[in-house]
Amino acid sequence: MRKVAGARCAFVVLTLAMVAAGGADKTVTNKEIGCEFIIPESWTVLEDTNHRVSAYASRRVNDTGEFSVELTKLSGPMTAKEYAASNIAEYRTRLLNYNVIDQGDEKICGHDAYRIVGSFDTFASGRAVKFTWHILIVGTRVYCISEMAPKQDYDLYAKDIDAIVKSFKLIEAK
User: Fold this and answer.
1) 103-125 per-position pLDDT tens digit
2) Over 80: is that where the pLDDT of 63 sits?
3) 120, 98 in Cβ contact below 8 A?
4) Domains and CATH numbers, the chain
5) Given this model, what pLDDT does residue 5 score?
């Protein structure tokens, strides 16, 4: 019986230590875009414009993981897959060594979406960047939810980014 009580006590102490070490998450709300998501406390928020909000974290010197949501409007009907295909064609002409690694349908906050995973090299340094873009279309509003990091460090940010994407939700826009 004492062993069970000791084990329970150790479990509670370990759990509390993990919660305390994890810090508090921050909710990022942008009413102009009409979205909300949760980022870890260690991430920094940048609200660039009324059409974009982003957050970033740095795990190593000069290497940064970034998460952003950008809003655009459609002029006519289009699926997320069609929108993604048009962007892939454009990015192949604009980005150095642009490569699609994976793509497919997904759900984000209960809505159909389309995901593209790929890589490209930056023009300035020639460093490889890995990215994931999630395209979510609701009415005429296109939410491009993206994350990127240096290719060799992408996995350092994967757990945080996965949690951020899962926390994403739509709210009433202004």
Assistant:
1) 999 999 999 999 999 999 987 77
2) no
3) yes
4) 24-170 (3.40.1000.10)
5) 39
Q: Which residues are CB-neighbours of 86 under 8 A, at least 6 positions away?
A: none
d(C-alpha 153, C-alpha 131), whole Å? 11
CB 151 within 8 A of CB 119: yes
User: What separation in angstroms does the CA of 155 have from each of 39, 85, 100, 138, 159?
Assistant: 17, 26, 17, 30, 8
* Residue in this structure with the two tokens 């509003």, named with its chain if needed: 141
**Residue 109: other Cβ atoms inside 10 A:** 17
Q: What is the pTM of this model?
A: 0.79
Q: Provide the total of helices (H) and of strands (E) in the chain, helices listed first.
A: 3, 10
Only one residue has tokens 């899962």, namely 166
Contact 42, 65 (CB under 8 A): no
Backbone angles phi, psi at 108, to 5 degrees: -130, 125
